[in-house]
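Hi everyone,

Forwarding the result from last night's run.
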Amino acid sequence: MSGATTTPLTAAAALFDLDGTLIDSERRSQELWRRLFAAHGIATTPALLASFGGRRSADVIAEHLHRFGPGLTPDALRRDLRQLDEETGLPEARLMRGARTLLNRLRDAGIPTALVTSGGPRYATHHLARLGVADHFRTLVTAADVTHGKPDPEGYLLACRRLGVDPRQALVFEDSAAGIQAARASGAACIAVGAPSRASTAETLAVVHDLADTPEIRPAAGVAYEGQAEAGPGSD
């Protein structure tokens, strides 16, 4: 752990990003994007693929749609991406080191958790169920639930409304620059996971190599925030 205090933290809720934070899936995600671009004869670079981290596929496709030529729609490219996700030979997504232990600690402490991901609901529920951690989360906020994806704070604000806590008392775990910006814009404190850029971690509480390095977290009394829990994730 670097740039962090060993003093125990307090939180009324813990909010997790999925890819690159809760699950080690960035190699898989980048390979999917590489295959999509390559299928249409478009070269990519590691820097370009890394820049997609933490963002909704719809936003990435909209930004690069002009590169795919005429006649291709965002819906068609998203279908292609889903089909590629079913191919063999892709890196396997797995839980980040320390993830299960941290989720158990939060549950034992009575701290509610939510998932806030740029992925779709089917993608999120599939991986949470496959890895055996779905029952840890009181609510999932996915790409289908928001109008504006990260770095917009909409997803984190929605998760806090569903949990009935003030965002200023929430603690977010994020790995990408876009996700960290979204967390900070919501008013929540943030722990940066992995090796985000120095600029993106300037205002985080801690930078941890993985979730096993998370400081102790103690429950804080929640403050009502625009009502209590809302419905679960939207449909894809």
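Strands lie at 9-11, 13-16, 23-24, 94-95, 113-116, 139-141, 170-174, 189-193, 206-208, 217-219.

Cheers,
N.
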